[in-house]
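Dear support,

We are seeing what looks like truncated structure output for some complexes. This example has two components. We would appreciate it if you could run it in full and send us the complete token output so we can diff it against ours.
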Amino acid sequence: MRYRRLLFLTLFLGASGVAFAANLDGRIVEDHTGNPLASVEVRVYKTGQRTLAAHLETDSSGRFRAPGLGDGEYRIEATKANFVGATVRLASLAGGLLIRLVRCGVITGQVVDAQGQPILGVAVYAMPKPLNGPLMPFSAPAAGSFTRVDERGQYRLFGLPPGEYAVVAAYGASTSMFGSSGGAEVRSGIGSGVQVYPSNLRPQFFAVTGGELYRNIDFSIVPAGLHNLSGKVELPDPKTRYWLALTTADQPGLATAVTETKPDGSFRFESIPAGAYTLTASGPVRGYGGKAVLGPEPYFGRSRVSVAADLEGVAVSVQKARTVSFVLRSAPGQQAEGACPANAQVTLTALDDFAARIDRTGEVNSVKEQAIADLAPARYQIGVNRLGESCYLASDTVLDLSAGGKDAPVPVLVAAAGSIRGKLTGAANAQEFAVALIAADAESSAQPVQVVFPDAGGKFTFGGLRPGRYRIVTQPAGEASKARWVTDPSRMIEIQIVAGAPTEMELPAPQRSQQ
Amino acid sequence: MKLLTALVLCAAAVAAQDKAQDKNQDAAPKLGSIAGAVTAGGGGPPMKDVEIYVNRNTPQAKMAVTDQQGRYVIRDVAPGQLRISANAPDASGRAGFGPNANRLVTLAPGQELTGVDFRLVIQGRISGKVVDQNNEPVVGIAVFLVAREYSHGALRAVFAGAGNTDDQGAYRLERVPPGRAYTVLATRARRGLPAISDSPLDPELRLPAVVPTYYPNARSIDGAEALVLRPGEHREGIDIHLTRSAAFCLDGVLEGTSGPAALRFNIAETQPASGASGEGAFYTATPGGTSGPDGKVRICDLHPGEYELSVSEFTPGGMGGAAQFGATIVTIGDRDVAGARVGLRPRIPVSGEVVFDGPAPEPPLTAKLRLSVQAITRTERGSTQADIPSEFTFEGGLLMDAYGLDIGGVPAGVYIKDVTYGDRGMMYQPLRVGSAMGNAGLRVILGRDGGTIGTQVADKDGNPVADCTVVILPATSPNEAVFAAAVKTGKTNQAGAWSSPTLAPGKYFVLATSGTVDRSPETTGKLWKARNRGEEVEIAPLGKVSVTLSPKSLD
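Here is the complete output from our reference environment:
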């Protein structure tokens, strides 16, 4: 669940002035209000001990206490539903610990037709604001970032961590509807489609910094012109089923409509909006679970089709799935002996919605090419697992198979984690401040919010950073401070972290009026 | 003359053609019609937009939709025995997703059959919130509908529905049958368990365990507040204050056939349990995991109470149930429990015989008995067939568990007099596989001296009442559980008639009701008290009794 993502907090105990003790006690508050948080689960790990040192819960005042734990290094994990979790590492036990948890955002609304009547069966998504390119749903949607409307057409998206989000509704024969029931009811006059709030051309992005509740984000589905599209898939094997999906260039990750072939390969899309589409075909389908589940050795088809009126006789040909080889490589400029392992797992997450399960994983190593089969003619986001804590994918790489396969092995470039070496300037006492670093890409970062305290000279360090985009801000620290760890993005400085080499920077301390 | 001849020939030709047409029409069955009305059960209003089907999903299917007054007519229906089904829209208006029912009727050629009515049970819903000791909403907790009913000789608490709390701690239980008492239980959702828990060694430093809590805040079903919904009712505000307790751990070893081994384990409170509930069954996944090769487990976060710790092993690549299984009961008191051991047991051969009490009939019966067993709290099942009389075996054996035994295909004129396992009577009791001494197996004893009760149900004006429930109650019973199991029910046909299967000679009470009959303790109690309002009959050996009834309320 999203609230399991961790807030990494390094406390320099001497610098912060807290007393050493054999007891652990502290308080947990809500970041944007400072209100105490009850019923926060607190797990206390002691370095070198397999069992937990303590497993607690905050009381109604947000306080927790574990007496008599003994000296040692500890890691404290605080989690609560609907909040981004926090982790504190202590060189030794501390009393008077303050942990702030960031509350996730909520977006609610309703989906209605032109007469204000609820439209049922609509799937609603929160999609993170992309760095570039089109909107995409979360590759692994957590509970709350995707939902269906209820019988009143109302929806509620919840558990959204800090970031910016668009809200998108998919109605009619959507992938969600088809994938969960093997079919869909297309309402006459409404048809199938994807609508971004408030418009597909100008999406609105809702910022979440902590605890925002956006209400009445309502959709009114009023399609302009609806048409039918029919044709036939040239089946490699008779009486096999194929699922077809129509996607647009500005919403490739969410199909406008999905349909299934009849035993003779014929298909029909009903009531789809006019437009230019990519038409994909996947099969043979042997079941469904969210999306079509394909049999072994699948076939895929991909073509362009333009719909301005009813269209018949569309011929779709399919070809065998592709196989691509991968090899693990260190990014240019990286040291040969580094923090990156020789073996890892590569993940290929489809960026195009084929209404079928086409994501793939495979083992990859730095010695020999490894092949991953059954790939669709789609664009895939390459990801890597099992790199350890100090190695990351060097850059965002998209494998584009939409126009053809890849003969040469695809290098998966990894590099040591990035870091920041910074100095706080303009502060009379640098130790009165905390520096917060927030990952701009909430989905890809395992540690969306990190906080460190500068030393007496104002120097601070963030290590083990995934290369990418971040926002950084300075806030007054300490239990008495009401300052939030996560604030308005416009008040934060955006920086790009590169792999391997540290990023040097000077950060101005906020003036009194800004606190 | 020629003209006359031509005219005569024409007339003859026409007459011949008419005769041929009449013959064809005589060969084609005369189509009829079926009409009726649909109302909400329990005396509710007419229901519109209900889809009525004749022989749905067949090439001869026909359909109509009820009007504003809940009435329908289906015309041009071929005669014969027909299945009529009614499918109402659900609360959001989706056609065919709501309550439904079906009946068998017989349509004569050309008949305009009326009064094929339906009373649809409109299910209700229950909603509320789950909060903890700090009044904080509890997110992601499982909420169950729990029923109590008599089954397999005992009063059991069984799951009958489920939901989860959302991000605001709110839950909703849908499709709650009206008119029956249910309790609502909040408990931790199914979760995967590590073989060795990392819970602190010191119980004082552990997170308090969640105690399964019945609405509003009871730790046992006996203290729970029962809810009985009206048809279509939405009962809101059913808020549960989750109870917590000290958390304890259980240390144990799982043993395979050759000693400690890596095995799949599950642990769950003994009540309520998965299994048969109402007209169906409801199974839930229980917390569990897989032990390491040393078989050791440390299961923590346990509240005081009784648990079943089970272990199972599946055939690699097999699609069926467990190949081997074992279970033990563990009680958690006020401290950790160590030294628990549970081992796999192989499947046990179960065989038996079907015999007559007295001489077998001549000529021999050609019917076969169908014997099927279903584990009471698990999905394990088995079945076999047997000639009457003959021996039988459950192919592949059965896991050592408690099962319900169902015997079907009992021919007319024969009744089940007794069932024994290991020479111990188990009529209305669970079949505890593995409890038979020596080689003693299952014995089904059939009687041939039984009789039947024929009933005719009519209203106060003497009109036959179709689709009415007839209940046959034993005159005596050792306890409520056996009484509930011995009750026989049936539904009258369109002529208001129903005939019982062959019953043992003896005294019975017979009554008819339009209410729902189930095995809940509430309904069982009503039936027990209602005996004296029914018709008392006595079936003599090979006797046949006829009785006329009018529908009565059980209240």
